[in-house]
Amino acid sequence: MSITRLKPIVLILALVLGLAGLVLYLSSYFIGLLLMLAAVIIVFAYRAASGEKEAAAEDARRLLRNLSVPAAGVAVAVLVGGILMLATGYDPVAAYRALFYGGFVKNWHISILNASPLIFTGLAVAFAFKASLFNIGAEGQYYVGAMVATYLGIFLKLPPLFSIILIFLVSGLLSALYNFIPALLKVRTGAHEVITTMMFAHIARYVSSIFIRGMGGDSAGPHPYVSDPILESNWLPRFQSILPRANYRLHAGILIAIAMAIFVHYILTRTKFGFEIRAVGQNPQAARMQGISVGKNIFRALLFAGFLAGLAGTNQVLGLEHKLFENLQAGYGWNGISVALLASNHPIGVIFASLLWGALDAGGQYMARTTQTPNAIVEIIKGIILFLVVARYLYVALRNRIKRRRRTAGEAA
Amino acid sequence: MDAFFSIFNENLLIATIRLATPITLAAIGATICERAGIVNIAMEGLMIIGAFFAATVSLLTGNPWLGLLAGVVAGGLFSLIHAVGCISFHLDHVVSGAVVNILAFGVARYLMVLFYGHPGTTDPIPRSLAEFQLAIPGLSRIPVIGRALFQQTPIVYISFVLVICFAILMKKTRLGLHIRAAGEHPLALETIGVSVFKMRYLAVVISGITSGFAGAFLSIENNVSFTEGMTGGRGFIALAANISGGWTPIGSFLAALFFGFADALQVRFQIIKLLPIPPELFIIFPYAATIVAVAGLVRRSRPPKEVGVDFIIEREEE
Amino acid sequence: MNKGQNRAVLLETRNISKQFPKVLANKDISIKLYENEILSLLGENGAGKSTLMNILYGLYKPTAGTILLDGQEVQFPSPKDAIRLGLGMVHQHFMLVETLTVAENIILGTEPGRLGFIDLKQARQEVVELSERYHLAIDPDAKIESLSVGLQQRVEILKALYRKARILILDEPTSVLTPQEVDQLFEVIRKLRDTDVSIIIITHKLEEVKAISDRVYILRRGEMVGERETEAVTQQELANLMVGRDVVLTVRKQAKTISAECILKLEEMVIQNDQGLDAVAGISLGVCPGEVVGIAGVDGNGQTELAEGIMGLRELSRGRIVFKNRDIHSLTTKERILEKISNVPADRHRFGLVLPMKVSENLVIGTHDIPPFIKGINLNLPVIAEHSRNLVASFDIRTPSIEVQAGHLSGGNQQKLILAREFSRDPDFLLVSQPTRGLDVGAIEYIHSQILKMRDRNVAILLISLELEEIFALSDRILVIYEGKIVKELIPEKTNEKEVGLYMTGGGTKEP
Question: What is the DSSP string of chain B?
């Protein structure tokens, strides 16, 4: 029996193991980690056995190479951050220990909670980047999604599963439409989407203030600057309801986010929509020559990006906060951009970059509480990581120089 | 009718000029930058850095002029990150600009917590540049525009001077010619022996300096302290002003006036309370105006040919 | 024109080598330039001629070897130094800033004036004096973008002369000129030679070498493989030296009978360009299955808009376009592709390929959403891979795999990729623009033979080209386009390049 006939079984097994492992791990059952590892090993073993050994090895090699860049960035940023801390009178060792412990161990659930909205906004920015569009106003789309989710969350009374799915879809749709004018202007007049989406983002922020006031958050009321709470039937399910050891705030949003990332990856690599969007992003003139409509694909890219960013807001409202806070400094937009850049706009990479960012935030808060090192050092570390990762040319140039030096040294010898 | 004139009067003009100033300053910096071929979306972050350092040094020394200097120098230095990123590291200009913005916000926050112990707003400065308002004798008596143009505060005057200087620079000097060539046909410039890299670095630093002025205006002339996020999108509005102004200093100035007008109007509508509308809908004026401007409903013109395009010479040393 | 060896050597290179990361562009090149002579550097694309010139001009540093000027060893760390020592270069792609005026471009880098300000009046005056001295008439206040290509080249020459060049290097100077403009250029060069300016011409055109130069060096694969007095050498010998083997100089097409019913008919077609002017000002033509119709003309006479109109990328203002007896003006580009209209665009990097995409992806783009390449909304990757492997094999596309980026292929292989994609669609009509631009003789041979194979398969072919040699080699009929109209129809066997060139520049019409 040829091994390729086992392929569907292997895939399903890996999927089930991986998913189960993920959920368990998130709920603080660390055996989940082993299950996920097993899933990965099964996939690689299958590829090796079925004669794809070369391609599998090449993939593994490529993965390691791609990871080395962010790893180097993190290393240097940690170093520079440490020097900065020393220079301003804080203890870097204690600070980093607290940072790591807080982000990855003690408050791992907070890291996850931080990461879910970032995955959505990161995907939004990354997807638009594939079409060479800079959806810098993702934060505005976030607010639109959050507002719609809050409104429906307060008023929509349906059985929980229907309700939640409906809210996700409607809020995503409306935040997608929020990008309609920027897309239209881009296609019709060439107006730069950096400016238009950014302006719309500012507008959305102010509109959200009006909205919150209207939804019970006016300054004279019982809870100023916060909307009324949403119905409990519209809350995203919590892990604790099935797995008691999980942290009480951990909700299913992270699973939706990861599923969305896989979905986006699938669209980009396997469907004709992704193909056309990539072609338009990489060479719109050649794409036009082949009958691909540049305008239509710009619309698709920006609107779908709006959809994704809006889901970030929905995720926060339905899953974590259950109401809408007036938070003018949320930073989901810029953090989403960072995450997308960090992941080189790869949807799966966005998941890990978001987790890293989420962990840094969670660890930073823990560090600030326990060692009195200002949380803001984390912002600088993030900025340095970002800068170094994005400066890919540096690595290419460095690598070429090392290669050349070795070659000329070899020739001289 | 009374209500109409309570809004549309001389004070509106004064406020327009005043509120246009940070946008003017950032926009003419963007003009020079883009003429040389570099897209700079980092002006928002550079303004924040300028604003922070201006306020902090004013506070520390009690002298707002030193604060101004500090803000300008800080803006110029910080802009080098963008310059290095897109010129030497060949990053995509928009990506590099976004990274600089992120870095700027982070640095501002860190330093705030470091110096003041808390994020948010700094302590008020003892003397603001607004105290140094100067009325030019004679000229300031001209009806309607006299006070708006000739009875203003220092940085506003500086912005006028810079607009004129930049206009002369671009049209009539060697440097201006080289900057224009760097954005249209950098290889031509390089083959004549003028370094495109140097031109572009210079252009970016110039935009950093003007953004520093703009930030300083926001914190120590139009206000008495620094608040996080006080730039409110002006860095991006300035980009729109440059585009609407056709990539010229005078054009950028006129476009900035348009946005300043929207800003001034919005404040007045809030105060006068003409209609029972939430104030936020007025605050949105400038942003909506920017979208309208950028959609080409104001003016259409061509950007420099090689703006945003990376320039690599396949030169020498291995 | 004295040829005695007692002439002074103006410029000499000794054993110049240049190593790039992946390729040895120049190996041990030693050449001499005498006073008062016109020297040619002949070689295929990639032979190393431009590299050598860029070294002489200070853009590159040689990895080995020396340069001597007037017998003294010199170095050119930057173009400024080369200019200072009297070298001037006219590049193939002009180094002119389009939005600036002629005067501003000429003085760029050496502007007259004080304290950083430019004295524009003096600049104008100097330019006028210069153009009078060398009889190169030009309007100093004209913006470059408003000048013809021939005039722009004149500005480039004036730029070099303004800086007192004694050696003028021209890189592929005739590639953008009409035959008449070429004659004018040669006149100017001869005059310059007589006024103490020596000229080096870099070219891959054999007739040019014979027409204008006194001596020629032949480069091949980075090495200098021959030096000849041009009077004493034949074109065939030059071609063989250039390529290293015996070369078929023209691909012979078989005469054949052409079916009478035209598959594509353009009737009084009018198309506007981006500025709102009529770029195509009323063209009527027909192309029949099995014939190659060649459109000859100088760049900018409406060819681009014509091609865009046929492919549906630009609307017709008036007139009809009829394909297989159907008016197709309302069909989108996509629909025209489905109607079996294929297109090889003029600029392979800008319009022909998505360079960051894989070879396999570039081979199916355009038909990627048609079965069998698609299954529902999913791309059928195995089928696409199989299809790509077949095309790579049958079109001899040299690539390590179908998964590499198209940008990593050489120019010739990229063009083969485009041909493979368009030809494999089994078209009934083929629009081919500039198919061999920038390619070497070997690649040109291959592509011409592929086009003729399509002709043999009874495909109707419309060829738009700026290379008269190509037009003559492939066409059954030649239509000359000038200012958006077809001004003349000629049969290649009954005419010559001079006559075609005449019509290309508006001559030969019966207007008063």
Answer: -HHHHHHSSHHHHHHHHHHHHHHHHHHHHHHHHHHTT----THHHHHHHHHHHHHHHHHHHS-HHHHHHHHHHHHHHHHHHHHIIIIIS---HHHHHHHHHHHHHHHHHHHHHHHHSSSSBPPPPSS-GGGG-EEPTTGGGSTTTHHHHHEE-HHHHHHHHHHHHHHHHHHHBHHHHHHHHHHH-HHHHHHTT--HHHHHHHHHHHHHHHHHHHHHIIIIISSSS-BTTTTTTHHHHHHHHHHHTTT-HHHHHHHHHHHHHHHHHHHHHHHHT-SS--THHHHTHHHHHHHHIIIIIS---PPPTTTT-------S--
Residue C309 has pLDDT above 90, yes or no: yes
Per-domain boundaries in chain C? 9-243, 263-340+429-505, 349-426
Q: A168 versus C112: which is more confidently predicted?
A: A168
Q: Which residues of B touch A195 (CB under 8 A)?
A: 236, 239-240, 243, 290-291, 294
In this prediction, residue A409 carries a pLDDT of 52
Domain with B214 in it: 2-124+153-297
Condensed to tens digits (0 to 9), the pLDDT of residues B141-182 reads 777 777 778 888 889 999 999 999 999 999 889 899 999 999
Nearest to A272 among C355, C356, C377 (CB): C377
CB contact under 8 A, A286 and C352: yes
Per-residue pLDDT, averaged over A40-60, amounts to: 73
- State the CATH architecture for C9-243: 3-Layer(aba) Sandwich (3.40)
Chain C residues close to A400, C-beta within 8 Å: 21
Asked whether residue B140 is assigned to any structural domain, the reply reads no
Who wins on pLDDT, C387 or A327?
C387
Minimum mean pLDDT among B32-46, B291-305, C269-283: which range? B291-305
* Number of domains comprising chain B: 1
Cβ of A376 within 8 Å of Cβ of B95? The answer is no
| Contact at CB, A290 and C365, closer than 8 angstroms | yes
Using the Cβ of A62 and the Cβ atoms of chain C, whether some distance falls under 8 Å is answered with: no
Does any domain span residue B92? yes
- Say which CATH topology domain C263-340+429-505 has: Rossmann fold (3.40.50)
Output B33 or A89, whichever has higher pLDDT.
Answer: B33
Please tell me the distance in Å from A350's CA to the nearest CA on chain C.
21
- The CATH number linked to B68 is 1.10.3470
Please state the ipTM of this predicted complex. 0.85
Contacts of B181 in chain C (CB under 8 A): 97, 100, 108
